Amino acid sequence: MEVSMNTNIRITVADxxxxxxxxxxxxxxxxxxxxxxAVTKALxxxxxxxxxxxxxxxxxxxxxxxxxxxxxxxxxxxQGTRPALALMDAVQALRKPLIAAVGGAAxxxxxxxxxxxxxxxxxxxxxxxxxxxxxxxxxxxxxxxxAPLFSGHRLASEAVLFGETFDVHRAREMGIVNQxxxxxxxxxxxxxxxxxxxxxxxxxxxxAKAMLKERLxxxxxxxxxxxxxxxxxxxxxxxxxxGIKAFLERRRAAPANN
Length: 258
Fold this sequence. Notes:
By secondary structure, the chain is an alpha/beta fold.
């Protein structure tokens, strides 16, 4: 077993599975530039490692990811969406299967990354959301195409336009989640499934994944950039900046649940 960690993620490689654990619980596993970079490098390394056959991304059984660290969007000297784009490209290029284990909050990119995961397991109390419109920005990570393809136009429109959180039952209805697993079993179950997949012929699995995604995801590279150009432009608007500040104030005032 190989284990490595930094202040943002923990990586464990064992039995053919590279397990990437988001670990910024003080900010609900939000992704800042350093975390994006760490996850991107972990994905690229896993894809090149002949001993890794499956990649698993997770938080903890009660917390997955609350999306982008919005405070960085208020920094005029910050990197904007560039770190997120590098992660998106790495996920899109990943040849090996990606399994996501989702407990608790999966918000923003915490939800949109699931459209790119090959298999998703989630807990009964998992909650999802794409609050881009309420924050004054637009969908990202190919969601403008993938949400209606996965869920149909009406379910996707309700989720994206209102930006409200939704539960695991709606997530299954929307085609985002494969199976619901009790909290205590989430990580062991997802790990066991990843190990089973890793035990199958590696090149056959890689080839099958490529065939499944070839047509659906052919346009992702350009779409990521098209969405993020609009996202970045909308970030400069005063009403968007005010909305993000108000959101962060509400979050700071709210009692911590995780």
